[in-house]
Design a protein that fits this description.
Blueprint lengths: L1 E6 L11 H12 L3 E7 L17 E4 L26 H20 L9 H12 L6 E6 L3 H13 L3 E5 L14 H15 L4 E4 L2 H11 L3 E3 L26 E6 L10 H9 L7 E6 L5 H9 L5 E5 L3 H10 L2 E5 L13 H8 L3 E4 L5 H9 L2 E3 L3 H18 L15 H20 L8
Parallel strand pairs: 1-2, 1-4, 2-3, 4-5, 5-6, 6-7, 8-9, 8-11, 9-10, 11-12, 12-13
C-alpha cells in the first residue's frame, strides 16, 4: 500500500499535533507500507532532530507568503519584581495586537496556515515524480491541510481520508470565531467532505457529531501512549524536594482562558487552612497569565510555581516526580467527546490524576475505568481529596503508583493496527471506481 500523509505538524516538531501523524507514519513503515509525508518546514529544526521516518520520505514545503507574527504584550512581572503600571502606549499596542489577531482569525479561511496550501501542492507535484498514493490521509488541525489533501486526491483520482484530532466548524473549540465566520467554515467543510472517502476521529461522541452533521462514514481511533522509558526511579521513588509532608501536584501543557480553569483547585488549597502550606502545584506550559491571577484571587501564591514553557523531556520529568497530576478540561457537556493527548502522557507517568472537567465525558470515564484518577470540580470536594492524599503522603512518603495494567491496550501500536485497516478499506472501496486522469 502506498500512503501519503498530509500534516502541517510532523516530527521533529515538538507540537502535540505532530505526534499522531508521526506515529502513524512510523507504524505504517514498520508494517511494510510505502509512505510519503507532506508537511511544512515549521518546526523541522526542533527537538534532537530524530524521527522514525527517513527524511527522504518527507516533503517539506515552506509557507508563502510569510504572514506577520503578532507578539503578545504581557504585563506580568518577573520573579521578585513588583508589578509596575503599564504605559498607555503599551496598552494601546496590546489592544491593537489583540484586534489584529481577531481580524486574522476572521479573515484567514480556514486558518492562518492558509499560506501553506499552494506551496504544499506544488511541492508534492515537484517531488513525487511517478509515485502515486493508493490513499491520502490528512491530519488536522490546521484544516488548511484538508484543502491540500482534497486537491491532490482529486487530481490523482485517489481516495482521501480526513483525520480529525479536533473537530472543525462543529467542534467545541470553535469559540474564537463569529457566527458568520462559523457559517463560512461549515460551508467549506461540507464542500470538501463531499469527496472524502472516510473520516477518523479520537472518540465516539466526536465521530457521531461528524456523521450526524455531514453524513460521512466516520471511525474512531484513539490517541495512545507513546512508549518511552520513564525517568530512572520515577515511579515509586520519593519525590525530589518538598519533603515527606508536602503534597506535590503538577499540571503540564496550555491553560486556556475560559475553558481550562485552575481556579477550583487553587480555591480548594485555600480551604485547607494551615495545611495549604503543605500542598504545592507546579504549572509548566503557557498560561496567558491565568494561573497568576487565579492564585492571587485564592490567596495561595506561595503554593504555586509557574515555570512557563518547558521542553518535552523536562515536562515528562515533572510529571514523573509529582505525587499527583492535574488535568484541566472544560466542565461542560459539549466537551464530552474530548480526549486530550495529555491524558496518555499522564498515564505513562503512572501518577494519580485529578481531572477538573466534565464528569460524564470520555476522559473522565477512561480514568475511572482504569483506576487512574478522580474527577472533581467543586473546591470543597477537591479539598477533601487533597486531605486524603496528604494523609497518605504523611504515612507512606509517596502516593501509590497507578497500576501498570491501567495502560493495557492504550499504547499507540494498540490503536494504529485498526487505522491501517481503515485506510486499506478506503483504498479498496475506491479502487474499482478510479479512473486515471488523462494527461
Amino acid at each position: 500500500m502506498r500512503l501519503l500523509i498530509v500534516s502541517y505538524y510532523f516530527p521533529p516538531a515538538e507540537s502535540v499535533g505532530a505526534r499522531r501523524p508521526g506515529a502513524l507514519a512510523a507504524f505504517a513503515l514498520q508494517q511494510g507500507w510505502d509512505v510519503r509525508v507532506l508537511t511544512t518546514t515549521a518546526g523541522a529544526g526542533q527537538g534532537d532532530g530524530r524521527t522514525l521516518v527517513p527524511e527522504d520520505r518527507v516533503i517539506r514545503a515552506e509557507p508563502s507568503p510569510q504572514l506577520p507574527r503578532v507578539r503578545r504584550i504581557e504585563a506580568v512581572p518577573a520573579d521578585g519584581e513588583v508589578a509596575r503600571p503599564v504605559p498607555r502606549l503599551t496598552r494601546l499596542r496590546a489592544k491593537a495586537n489583540r484586534s489584529l489577531v481577531r481580524a486574522g482569525l476572521e479573515l484567514l479561511v480556514p486558518d492562518p496556515q492558509l499560506n501553506w496550501v499552494r506551496p504544499a501542492i506544488r511541492a508534492f507535484r515537484r517531488s513525487a515524480g511517478d509515485w502515486r498514493p493508493d490513499v491520502v490521509l490528512v491530519s488536522a488541525p490546521p484544516f488548511s491541510g484538508f484543502l491540500v489533501a482534497a486537491a491532490i486526491a482529486n487530481r490523482l483520482r485517489v481516495p482521501w481520508v480526513a483525520d480529525y484530532r479536533d473537530l472543525w466548524s462543529v467542534g467545541n473549540e470553535y469559540w474564537v470565531r463569529s457566527a458568520p465566520r462559523r457559517a463560512v467554515d461549515e460551508k467549506l467543510e461540507r464542500h470538501l467532505l463531499r469527496s472524502v472517502t472516510a473520516c477518523v476521529t479520537v472518540s465516539e461522541p466526536l465521530a457521531e457529531t461528524v456523521r450526524r452533521t455531514f453524513g460521512v462514514d466516520t471511525h474512531v481511533v484513539m490517541n495512545g501512549i507513546d512508549r518511552r522509558p520513564p525517568p530512572l526511579g520515577s515511579v515509586d521513588a520519593a519525590p525530589v524536594g518538598g519533603g515527606p509532608a508536602t503534597l506535590t501536584l503538577a499540571h503540564t501543557g496550555y491553560v486556556y482562558p475560559g475553558r481550562r480553569d485552575p481556579g477550583p483547585l487553587l480555591e480548594a488549597i485555600a480551604l485547607l487552612g494551615d495545611d495549604a502550606s503543605r500542598v504545592h502545584v507546579t504549572f509548566a506550559g503557557e498560561d496567558h497569565g491565568i494561573v497568576d491571577v487565579a492564585a492571587g484571587r485564592a490567596g495561595v501564591r506561595d503554593s504555586v510555581t509557574n515555570l512557563g514553557y518547558v521542553p518535552p523531556e523536562k515536562s515528562w520529568r515533572i510529571q514523573a516526580d509529582a505525587d499527583a497530576l492535574v488535568l484541566l478540561m472544560w466542565n461542560d457537556p459539549r466537551d464530552a467527546g474530548t480526549v486530550t493527548g495529555k491524558i496518555f502522557d499522564y498515564l505513562q507517568a503512572r501518577r494519580p490524576i485529578l481531572l477538573l472537567g466534565y464528569e460524564g465525558g470520555v476522559a473522565a470515564k477512561l480514568l475511572r475505568d482504569r483506576g487512574a484518577g478522580v474527577v472533581c470540580n467543586d473546591p470543597a470536594a477537591i479539598a477533601a481529596r487533597l486531605r486524603e492524599w496528604l494523609a497518605v503522603k504523611e504515612r507512606a512518603g509517596r502516593l501509590p503508583a497507578v497500576p501498570a495494567a491501567a495502560m493495557d491496550g492504550l499504547f499507540r501500536e494498540d490503536q494504529l493496527g485498526s487505522y491501517l485497516g481503515i485506510l486499506r478499506d478506503a483504498a479498496g472501496r475506491a479502487h474499482h471506481t478510479r479512473r486515471p486522469r488523462s494527461r
